[in-house]
Each structure stands twice: as structure tokens, then as C-alpha cells.
Request: fold
Amino acid sequence: MPRLNMFNNISLDGYFTDANGDMSWAHAGRDDPEMGEFTSKNAQGGGALVFGRVTYELMKAFWPTPMAAQMMPEVAKGMNAARKYVFSRSLKNSDWTNIVILNGDPAGEIARLKQEDGKGLTVLGSGSIVKQLAAADLIDDYQFMLCPVILGAGRTLFDGLPGGPRLTLENSRTFKNGNVFLHYRR
Reply:
């Protein structure tokens, strides 16, 4: 039975996007070679990816491009090869490889996918999907890249949730650029 993991960049004040929905602040300091190696290794996990439509469109605009292949070849290869589940009511098809479009309830669809054989599932970005899956207690592993920036306003992942399970710190890692990776397990 696959585990469901979520990964998101967050600011010191707990936001995953700024007040305008921008996430480019999370890319500052990406020139850290140690973090680049960590990111490349993470991209080789081999599981399926899960996106909401907005995150999917951001990912599709970059990862299949020659620029992505030049900048981060291992990550681009992993992103393009992975099966990708996209939650959308408006998207009907895609020209990106290995896409499965889901238009049902995210909690019900993910609960079904977790019953199938296969490697893990990872939600990247996709704040509204993360919030729904957290509310349904379906996320097994929470991974955050804490970025040393204070945004002052934006969107949080868990705003409005009544609370959830107590999480246990599985591991952490500090990078020279000031980012801190945090992995919590339910």
C-alpha cells in the first residue's frame, strides 16, 4: 500500500505562497550545490506525483523544457518520467507525459489510489489539495523546505483545519543557504 507524502516550501512565517500567489521566493539560494544534490536525489524516488491544476500548470510550463533539462537534468528526467495525477474540473487532456486527470473528490480518489499496489504518492505544492487530504487524515509524511524569508502575508497550508494528528520528526537537514528540510511522519 503506497504512502502519501506532501512536499512544500514554506516561509519562516508559515506561508507557501506570498500574498499574490507567487512562489519564486522559494528559489532563492537554489545555487547551493549541496541542496541541488539533495533535490536531485529526492527526484529519483520513483513514485507518482499529485498536483492540483494550478501547480500542474506551473510544473508543465517548466519541467518538459530544454531549460529544465539543462539546469537540473536528474530532476527534469524524474518529473517527466513519473506518473502524474492532476485534480481538475476544467482540464480535459494534457500533452505532458504520464498524466492522469482526476475530477473526483481528492480525498476519495487518493484513498482509492492508496489501496492500489505501487510506490508512494507525493503531492507537490497544491495547497488546496494538501488541505483537503490533511483534513481527511490521508497524508502519511509531511516534508517542508523551510526558507529563510518572512513574507508577512500569503496562503498557509492548514488554515481553517480543526487540528490534526501529532507528527513525529523523522529527520531534518540544514543547508548552507539557510534552508532547513523537515520531514515529519504521522
